[in-house]
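anyone else get weird line breaks when pasting these?? whatever heres mine. first is seq + C-alpha coordinates for prot A
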Amino acid sequence: MQKILRELDDGAKESCWAWYIFPTEKAGMCDFDETRITAENAKDLCDPEINASAGHWQQCLQEICRLLEERNAIPPDSHVLPRIDHGRVHWFIKFWQSYEHSPRWMQEAPDA
Protein backbone atom coordinates (compact mmCIF):
# COMPACT_ATOMS: atom_id res chain seq x y z
CA MET A 1 0.00 0.00 0.00
CA GLN A 2 2.96 2.33 0.55
CA LYS A 3 3.78 1.99 -3.14
CA ILE A 4 0.24 3.07 -4.00
CA LEU A 5 0.48 6.08 -1.68
CA ARG A 6 3.78 7.10 -3.29
CA GLU A 7 2.15 6.84 -6.72
CA LEU A 8 -0.74 9.01 -5.54
CA ASP A 9 1.80 11.62 -4.40
CA ASP A 10 2.13 12.34 -8.13
CA GLY A 11 -1.62 13.07 -8.27
CA ALA A 12 -2.99 10.10 -10.19
CA LYS A 13 -3.23 6.33 -10.43
CA GLU A 14 -0.82 4.97 -13.04
CA SER A 15 -0.37 1.24 -12.34
CA CYS A 16 -2.71 -1.73 -11.78
CA TRP A 17 -4.03 -1.83 -8.22
CA ALA A 18 -7.70 -0.77 -8.30
CA TRP A 19 -8.98 -4.18 -7.16
CA TYR A 20 -6.98 -3.88 -3.92
CA ILE A 21 -8.23 -0.40 -3.02
CA PHE A 22 -11.73 -0.74 -4.47
CA PRO A 23 -12.60 -4.40 -3.92
CA THR A 24 -16.01 -5.39 -5.28
CA GLU A 25 -17.88 -8.65 -5.32
CA LYS A 26 -16.17 -9.41 -8.64
CA ALA A 27 -12.44 -10.12 -8.77
CA GLY A 28 -10.33 -8.01 -11.12
CA MET A 29 -9.52 -9.66 -14.45
CA CYS A 30 -5.76 -9.19 -13.97
CA ASP A 31 -5.73 -9.95 -10.24
CA PHE A 32 -4.11 -13.34 -9.72
CA ASP A 33 -5.17 -13.26 -6.05
CA GLU A 34 -8.82 -12.90 -7.11
CA THR A 35 -9.39 -10.17 -4.52
CA ARG A 36 -13.07 -9.58 -3.81
CA ILE A 37 -15.32 -8.26 -1.07
CA THR A 38 -18.20 -10.14 0.50
CA ALA A 39 -20.56 -9.40 3.37
CA GLU A 40 -18.59 -12.03 5.31
CA ASN A 41 -15.08 -10.61 4.84
CA ALA A 42 -15.87 -6.88 4.69
CA LYS A 43 -15.88 -6.34 8.46
CA ASP A 44 -12.44 -7.97 8.82
CA LEU A 45 -11.06 -5.80 6.02
CA CYS A 46 -11.77 -2.67 8.08
CA ASP A 47 -10.54 -4.04 11.41
CA PRO A 48 -6.88 -3.12 12.12
CA GLU A 49 -6.71 -5.87 14.75
CA ILE A 50 -7.44 -8.47 12.07
CA ASN A 51 -6.07 -6.78 8.95
CA ALA A 52 -2.66 -5.15 9.36
CA SER A 53 -3.24 -3.20 6.11
CA ALA A 54 -6.55 -1.64 7.21
CA GLY A 55 -4.99 1.70 8.13
CA HIS A 56 -3.02 1.92 4.88
CA TRP A 57 -6.14 1.02 2.90
CA GLN A 58 -8.00 3.85 4.62
CA GLN A 59 -5.12 6.23 3.84
CA CYS A 60 -5.23 5.29 0.16
CA LEU A 61 -8.99 5.85 -0.07
CA GLN A 62 -8.75 9.16 1.76
CA GLU A 63 -5.88 10.32 -0.45
CA ILE A 64 -7.91 9.54 -3.59
CA CYS A 65 -10.82 11.54 -2.12
CA ARG A 66 -8.45 14.38 -1.31
CA LEU A 67 -7.10 14.42 -4.87
CA LEU A 68 -10.62 14.50 -6.28
CA GLU A 69 -11.63 17.29 -3.91
CA GLU A 70 -8.46 19.21 -4.77
CA ARG A 71 -9.47 19.09 -8.44
CA ASN A 72 -13.03 19.98 -7.44
CA ALA A 73 -13.98 16.80 -9.27
CA ILE A 74 -16.83 14.41 -8.67
CA PRO A 75 -16.22 10.82 -9.70
CA PRO A 76 -15.91 9.70 -12.34
CA ASP A 77 -12.87 11.86 -13.04
CA SER A 78 -10.24 10.52 -15.42
CA HIS A 79 -7.46 12.78 -14.14
CA VAL A 80 -7.11 10.94 -10.84
CA LEU A 81 -8.42 7.46 -11.76
CA PRO A 82 -8.42 6.11 -15.32
CA ARG A 83 -11.78 5.55 -16.97
CA ILE A 84 -11.28 1.77 -16.90
CA ASP A 85 -11.58 1.89 -13.08
CA HIS A 86 -14.78 3.96 -12.91
CA GLY A 87 -17.12 0.95 -12.96
CA ARG A 88 -15.17 -0.72 -10.18
CA VAL A 89 -15.36 2.45 -8.07
CA HIS A 90 -19.11 2.66 -8.70
CA TRP A 91 -19.72 -0.90 -7.47
CA PHE A 92 -17.32 -0.42 -4.55
CA ILE A 93 -19.31 2.61 -3.39
CA LYS A 94 -22.64 0.81 -3.84
CA PHE A 95 -21.41 -2.13 -1.74
CA TRP A 96 -20.18 0.03 1.15
CA GLN A 97 -23.23 2.32 1.10
CA SER A 98 -25.49 -0.69 1.61
CA TYR A 99 -23.21 -2.60 4.01
CA GLU A 100 -24.57 -2.26 7.55
CA HIS A 101 -21.11 -2.43 9.20
CA SER A 102 -19.49 0.20 6.99
CA PRO A 103 -16.94 2.12 9.09
CA ARG A 104 -17.72 5.72 10.02
CA TRP A 105 -14.65 7.06 8.19
CA MET A 106 -15.93 5.50 4.98
CA GLN A 107 -19.40 6.98 5.39
CA GLU A 108 -17.76 10.40 5.57
CA ALA A 109 -16.21 9.96 2.11
CA PRO A 110 -17.82 11.95 -0.73
CA ASP A 111 -20.78 10.38 -2.50
CA ALA A 112 -20.45 9.34 -6.12
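and prot B, same format (seq, then C-alpha coordinates)
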Amino acid sequence: MHGLALVILTTIVPWLEYRAAIPLMVELGIDPMIGLPSILLVNTLVPALALIAAVNLEGWIMRLPLISRLLEVAWRWTARSREKVEKYGYPALTLLVFVPLPGSGMWTAVAVAFLLRLRPLKSILFSAAGLVPSALLIYSLVSFFT
Protein backbone atom coordinates (compact mmCIF):
# COMPACT_ATOMS: atom_id res chain seq x y z
CA MET A 1 0.00 0.00 0.00
CA HIS A 2 2.98 2.32 0.49
CA GLY A 3 3.63 2.18 -3.24
CA LEU A 4 0.10 3.30 -4.05
CA ALA A 5 0.45 6.19 -1.58
CA LEU A 6 3.64 7.28 -3.36
CA VAL A 7 1.87 7.08 -6.72
CA ILE A 8 -1.03 9.17 -5.35
CA LEU A 9 1.38 11.78 -3.96
CA THR A 10 3.16 11.94 -7.32
CA THR A 11 -0.21 12.42 -9.01
CA ILE A 12 -0.96 15.45 -6.84
CA VAL A 13 2.27 17.29 -7.72
CA PRO A 14 1.71 19.91 -10.45
CA TRP A 15 3.79 19.29 -13.59
CA LEU A 16 4.31 15.64 -12.62
CA GLU A 17 0.73 14.46 -12.27
CA TYR A 18 -0.36 11.32 -14.11
CA ARG A 19 2.54 11.57 -16.57
CA ALA A 20 4.96 10.61 -13.78
CA ALA A 21 2.55 8.60 -11.63
CA ILE A 22 1.71 6.02 -14.31
CA PRO A 23 5.32 4.99 -15.03
CA LEU A 24 5.92 4.89 -11.26
CA MET A 25 2.84 2.67 -10.84
CA VAL A 26 4.14 0.26 -13.47
CA GLU A 27 7.65 0.29 -11.99
CA LEU A 28 6.32 -0.49 -8.51
CA GLY A 29 4.19 -3.33 -9.88
CA ILE A 30 0.88 -1.86 -8.74
CA ASP A 31 -2.17 -3.50 -10.27
CA PRO A 32 -3.40 -1.11 -13.01
CA MET A 33 -7.02 -1.95 -12.13
CA ILE A 34 -6.36 -0.22 -8.79
CA GLY A 35 -3.65 2.24 -9.79
CA LEU A 36 -5.16 3.81 -12.92
CA PRO A 37 -8.58 4.63 -11.43
CA SER A 38 -6.84 6.01 -8.33
CA ILE A 39 -4.56 8.18 -10.45
CA LEU A 40 -7.44 9.44 -12.61
CA LEU A 41 -9.66 10.16 -9.63
CA VAL A 42 -7.02 12.02 -7.63
CA ASN A 43 -5.65 13.86 -10.66
CA THR A 44 -9.16 15.08 -11.44
CA LEU A 45 -10.46 15.87 -7.96
CA VAL A 46 -7.52 17.71 -6.38
CA PRO A 47 -7.10 20.32 -9.15
CA ALA A 48 -10.91 20.56 -9.45
CA LEU A 49 -11.18 21.38 -5.75
CA ALA A 50 -8.40 23.95 -6.18
CA LEU A 51 -10.34 25.60 -9.03
CA ILE A 52 -13.55 25.69 -7.01
CA ALA A 53 -11.64 27.14 -4.04
CA ALA A 54 -9.99 29.79 -6.24
CA VAL A 55 -13.34 30.84 -7.68
CA ASN A 56 -14.88 31.03 -4.21
CA LEU A 57 -11.89 32.88 -2.73
CA GLU A 58 -11.57 35.32 -5.62
CA GLY A 59 -12.48 38.29 -3.42
CA TRP A 60 -9.72 37.48 -0.97
CA ILE A 61 -7.22 36.73 -3.77
CA MET A 62 -7.94 40.12 -5.33
CA ARG A 63 -6.74 41.84 -2.14
CA LEU A 64 -3.18 40.79 -2.96
CA PRO A 65 -1.85 43.71 -5.04
CA LEU A 66 0.50 41.90 -7.43
CA ILE A 67 -1.85 38.99 -8.08
CA SER A 68 -4.76 41.42 -8.45
CA ARG A 69 -2.95 43.37 -11.18
CA LEU A 70 -1.97 40.20 -13.05
CA LEU A 71 -5.50 38.80 -12.92
CA GLU A 72 -7.03 42.09 -14.03
CA VAL A 73 -4.77 42.14 -17.10
CA ALA A 74 -5.71 38.55 -17.96
CA TRP A 75 -9.40 39.20 -17.39
CA ARG A 76 -9.39 42.36 -19.54
CA TRP A 77 -7.86 40.36 -22.39
CA THR A 78 -10.42 37.61 -21.85
CA ALA A 79 -13.28 40.13 -21.91
CA ARG A 80 -12.13 41.43 -25.31
CA SER A 81 -11.98 37.89 -26.68
CA ARG A 82 -15.03 36.50 -24.86
CA GLU A 83 -16.67 35.02 -27.97
CA LYS A 84 -13.54 33.09 -28.95
CA VAL A 85 -12.92 32.02 -25.36
CA GLU A 86 -16.46 30.64 -25.07
CA LYS A 87 -16.22 28.89 -28.43
CA TYR A 88 -12.72 27.40 -28.19
CA GLY A 89 -11.83 27.58 -24.50
CA TYR A 90 -13.41 24.33 -23.34
CA PRO A 91 -12.19 22.12 -26.21
CA ALA A 92 -8.76 23.72 -25.78
CA LEU A 93 -8.73 22.50 -22.17
CA THR A 94 -9.34 18.95 -23.40
CA LEU A 95 -6.47 19.24 -25.87
CA LEU A 96 -4.21 20.86 -23.27
CA VAL A 97 -4.65 17.94 -20.90
CA PHE A 98 -4.59 15.28 -23.63
CA VAL A 99 -1.12 16.26 -24.90
CA PRO A 100 1.17 14.44 -22.45
CA LEU A 101 3.85 17.09 -22.08
CA PRO A 102 5.24 18.62 -18.89
CA GLY A 103 3.09 21.54 -17.84
CA SER A 104 0.05 20.43 -19.81
CA GLY A 105 -2.01 18.59 -17.21
CA MET A 106 -5.03 19.19 -15.02
CA TRP A 107 -3.30 21.80 -12.85
CA THR A 108 -2.50 23.91 -15.90
CA ALA A 109 -6.01 23.41 -17.26
CA VAL A 110 -7.68 24.63 -14.06
CA ALA A 111 -5.31 27.62 -13.92
CA VAL A 112 -6.22 28.48 -17.52
CA ALA A 113 -9.92 28.00 -16.74
CA PHE A 114 -9.61 30.41 -13.81
CA LEU A 115 -7.70 32.99 -15.86
CA LEU A 116 -10.20 32.77 -18.72
CA ARG A 117 -13.14 32.83 -16.29
CA LEU A 118 -14.58 29.66 -17.71
CA ARG A 119 -17.33 27.88 -15.81
CA PRO A 120 -15.69 25.58 -13.24
CA LEU A 121 -17.80 22.44 -13.66
CA LYS A 122 -17.72 22.56 -17.46
CA SER A 123 -13.96 23.23 -17.34
CA ILE A 124 -13.39 20.24 -15.07
CA LEU A 125 -15.44 17.95 -17.31
CA PHE A 126 -13.67 19.05 -20.50
CA SER A 127 -10.27 18.74 -18.80
CA ALA A 128 -11.09 15.25 -17.52
CA ALA A 129 -12.13 14.31 -21.06
CA GLY A 130 -8.51 14.86 -22.09
CA LEU A 131 -7.08 13.18 -19.01
CA VAL A 132 -8.57 9.72 -19.51
CA PRO A 133 -7.33 8.99 -23.07
CA SER A 134 -3.97 10.58 -22.31
CA ALA A 135 -3.51 8.42 -19.21
CA LEU A 136 -4.47 5.30 -21.16
CA LEU A 137 -2.01 6.24 -23.92
CA ILE A 138 0.80 6.73 -21.40
CA TYR A 139 -0.04 3.45 -19.67
CA SER A 140 -0.04 1.62 -23.01
CA LEU A 141 3.33 3.07 -24.00
CA VAL A 142 4.93 2.41 -20.62
CA SER A 143 3.58 -1.15 -20.55
CA PHE A 144 4.78 -1.80 -24.09
CA PHE A 145 8.33 -0.64 -23.37
CA THR A 146 8.75 -2.37 -19.99
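btw re prot B: The chain has eight helices and no strands. The first helix runs from residue 2 to 12.
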